[in-house]
Amino acid sequence: MAEKTTTALEFDFLADKLTLLLAQEDLAGIEAVVHDMSAADLVRVLEREDPGDRAIIYRLLRRDVALEVFERFEPSMRGELITGLRDEHVVSVFEALDPDDRASLVGELPAAVSAKLFDGLSEHERELTAPMLGYPPSAIGRYMSTEFLRIGPAWTCAEVLDLVRDRGAEAETVYLLMVTGPSRILQGVLSLRDVLLADGDAEVRGLMEEPEFVVASEDAETAARRAVRTGRMVVPVVDEENRLIGILTHDDATRIIDRADEEDAARAGATEPLDRPYLATAVTSLVRSRIVWLLILALSAILTVQVLEMFEESLEKVVTLSLFIPLLTGTAGNTGSQAATTVTRALAVGEVRLRDTARVAWREVRVGVTMGLLLGALGVLLAGVFYGWEFGVVIGLTLVSICTIAATVGGIMPMVAQMVGADPAVFSTPFISTFCDASGLIVYFLIAKAVLGI
């Protein structure tokens, strides 16, 4: 059944009404308002409230709605909400979570709270959750699910269907079944569709396919992208000895990729990603997410100032040179950022690897030269008409040079970052823009001195 949608006007009305009821401490009124709201709208409302009011509203939700809303929160929001709930609500929500969601929540809670919650879990739920906690948050094993069905190669299709009927409700998914041999060694995977279409006495070994899997200790983003590329709804997760220990669903892999992309986008814009919605983020947290980058960029911009100081005498002789500085530095920065963004994405999705560095550099050289020639021709024409053809040549040659340099550097820097184990996104826009500004100015003044004889 499709979730009821709310218009922006209706949502604003409900949000304002809840704010008023909270101020009046009218719990009955709040309960009446939230009763008919969809989970999506409730998440949006709760994200706007402060932690205290958020916990009050959450305690008034129906149990089934409360769990759905909780599962839609970011891990950091879940941790904050848990600390604001009473014990009976906390235990109820924690027990109802899927093991992988439970594991991600643990990292957002104080150790004492986590230990208390685990003590309240049933033995079965603790056994399902414990394997994920053995891996760091950066590993894909932290995001796997331990709720899956496992079959043997000698099983018949009739036996497989009996297992699906008996235990399918307990599993994360039944559409792809894991085939293991002795010691849980992964041997293959079997689609439920193939089971349904085969004879009941057909053996699994004749129907199973070669498994595409990820290793639990792998980097989460890398493994998630590879899992999505398989086109499967679920991918097996194995340990270093190829023993099956979990599964990674397409939905979980997609969420990992989305978070990684958001992080890259934030860092490309010279800020740290927020771990919760904007309105739920404290002002001090917003400042912390930006101030470090501003300080780094301010210090790196000193390089540009020093370049201008080096060529101060040239600027005094030909004041017109200063008019084109914003154009040239902007073109250099944008060209470098375009190349860096393109290559960073190509690295993330596996289209290029470190061994392709030379090929990437040569490709970006050609791209930069081509763009530089197009922009340079326009620069020669416009600058020549208004400031003289000699000056037009300076602008044209500078555009060709800086586009070539910026594209090449922008393309290589993300790969250098990956070589040294840094985040390619960090090395993209902020640092590349500053570098290209400084190098572009040096090229500009050197060409001007050569052509104009200053």
- Number of DSSP helical runs: 20
Reported CATH architecture of the largest domain? Orthogonal Bundle
Strand content of the residues, in percent? 5-15%
Shape: globular
Main beta sheet strand tally, sense and closure: 3 strands, mixed
- Oligomer category: single chain
- CATH topology title of the largest domain: Tetracycline Repressor, domain 2
Q: Report the strand count.
A: 6
Provide the helix percentage. Answer: 55-70%
In CATH, what is the class of the largest domain? Mainly Alpha
Please write the string of helix (H) and strand (E) elements: HHHHHHHHHHEHEEHEHEEHHHHHHH
Average pLDDT, rounded to a whole number, is 82
Whole-number count of domains: 3
Strand order of the largest sheet: 1-2-3
For CATH, the homologous superfamily of the largest domain is named as SLC41 divalent cation transporters, integral membrane domain
Radius of gyration from the alpha-carbon trace, in angstroms: 29 Å
Which class do the helix and strand fractions yield? Answer: mainly alpha
End-to-end Cα distance:
75 Å
The low-pLDDT segments are none
Summarize the structure.
This protein has helices at 8-24, 27-35, 39-48, 51-59, 63-72, 75-84, 87-96, 99-106, 111-119, 123-133, 157-167, 192-197, 220-229, 250-268, 283-310, 312-317, 325-348, 357-387, 389-419, 429-452; strands at 150-151, 176-180, 186-191, 214-215, 234-238, 244-249. By secondary structure, it is mostly helical. The chain has 3 domains: 8-133, MgtE N-terminal fold (Alpha Horseshoe); 150-263, CBS-domain (Roll), CATH 3.10.580; 286-452, Tetracycline Repressor, domain 2.
